[in-house]
Amino acid sequence: MGLSEIAVALVAGVTFSLFFAEKTGVLPAGLVVPGYLALIIDAPLYALSILFISFATYLVVMQVINRFTILYGRRKFSAMLLTGILLKLGFDSFSGLAPMDIEHLQAIGLIIPGLIANTIQRQGLVPTVASTILLTLFTFGVLTCYQLFLA
Asked: Considering the entire predicted model, what is its pTM?
């Protein structure tokens, strides 16, 4: 996977996310999430693990951390990101599911569960996951066309 494919996936994902949010009012789980998920869609167990870690992040922050401290705004967002990073690092170190060709995307991949968890908290599980999957598939379609015709 080359740098140009990563750029195409991220640009397409951000563009689709912006237009989708403007037209429907439903936020996908962060602007970069559909692009990142489109890059790992060929490893479905790993992609599903991202969603699982995201939901676990949401539960840990809202049901555990929220009992010990007041979370709102940036504090809540920071708690989601940090918890997501820790859970993802732990999962990746034990699972062995991460595809080898995305090692250079590790930094982006670390924040993805926190972004998804934060959006789940803001608008609910179903709208977040449904919009994210839809935009990931659109982005994957653009990436596939790029790989077939332009790469």
From this structure: 0.90
